[in-house]
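Exercise 7b. Backbone tokens:
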């Protein structure tokens, strides 16, 4: 019986693997309101491109306006009380100064009257401090309501595109909380720059370097090749898949690539140390092991192997 054999080749490993990857938005945020109110206007729709600071949704909440008016009135009242306290304190201080000057002449002013006038002047100063504190408290309350009124205008936190809209004018909306399952008003994603997440098998993680350019393809553009740069490496292996997540930064200034797209990544594998290679036809597989049959001194023996 004739058995065909082949020689084992020793050379550095330099191949490409085809790994699956997924494109995700570099930033993605669900837009919820900070305060409860009615939707007055929605200025964007699905597919709208927005810039940082653009108004997305305008709400109306009459009770917030009423509370701000009440806080404004309280502030004005506190300022009026301060004016009264200052006038009284100045009068008490003037009375005390006159009595003090007159007391220089023996017998003109009773000593008790001078003490009473001094205490009245001190009380006047305390009333001024109290009135100033009341003004500061009223001002802080008014500023808080003004900030809350500003929350009635929902703006874009970064440049991006609206991918989801779940609200229309007239709807009653409110803040999200842990017990709420309400959908966000809008969803904004940054798609000018994408993340390509690639699960790299642990056997090929030792040679990964940040800054390496990696080519990939997507089904939407047959024959076209895109590229991303290795930017972030998880530095931990997922015990369920035995892979390490690697993120590539992909510039998408023309908007051709969409978040959520699956891709095929041509992942380069380099190993400086020599590796042993045999043709794939020389590899045998059973339910227990993968091996090649080596001939040594005229005898055969099974040698475990793994594909690179």
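Sequence design result:
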């Amino acid at each position: 019986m004739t058995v065909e054999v082949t020689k084992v080749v020793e050379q550095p490993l330099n191949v490409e693997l085809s790994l699956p990857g997924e494109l995700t938005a570099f930033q993605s945020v669900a837009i919820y309101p900070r305060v409860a109110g009615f939707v007055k206007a929605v200025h964007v729709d699905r597919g709208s491109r927005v810039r940082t600071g653009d108004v997305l949704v305008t709400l109306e909440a009459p009770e917030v306006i009423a509370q701000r008016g009440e806080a404004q009135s309280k502030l004005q009242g506190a300022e009026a009380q301060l004016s009264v306290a200052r006038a009284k304190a100045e009068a008490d201080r003037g009375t005390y100064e006159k009595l003090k000057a007159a007391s220089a002449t023996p017998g003109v002013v009773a000593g008790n009257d001078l003490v009473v006038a001094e205490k009245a002047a001190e009380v006047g100063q305390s009333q001024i401090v109290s009135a100033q504190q009341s003004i500061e408290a009223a001002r802080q309350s008014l500023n808080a309501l003004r900030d809350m009124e500003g929350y009635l205008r929902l703006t874009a936190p970064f440049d991006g595109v609206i991918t989801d809209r779940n609200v229309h004018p007239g709807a009653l909306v409110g803040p999200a909380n842990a017990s709420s399952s309400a959908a966000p008003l809008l969803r904004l994603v940054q798609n000018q720059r994408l993340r390509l997440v690639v699960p790299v098998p642990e056997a090929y993680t030792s040679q990964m370097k940040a800054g390496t350019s990696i080519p990939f393809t997507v089904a939407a553009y047959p024959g076209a090749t895109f590229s991303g740069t290795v930017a972030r490496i998880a530095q931990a292996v997922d015990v369920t898949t035995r892979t390490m997540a690697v993120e590539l930064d992909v510039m998408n200034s023309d908007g051709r690539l969409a978040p959520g797209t699956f891709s095929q990544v041509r992942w380069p594998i380099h190993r400086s140390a020599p590796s042993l290679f045999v043709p794939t036809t020389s590899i045998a597989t059973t339910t227990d092991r993968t091996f090649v049959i080596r001939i040594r001194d005229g005898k055969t023996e099974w040698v475990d192997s793994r594909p690179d």
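Instructor comment: The chain has three domains: 9-25+189-304, 29-57+152-188, 63-150. Residues 29-57+152-188 form a domain with the OB fold (Dihydrolipoamide Acetyltransferase, E2P) fold (CATH 2.40.50.100).
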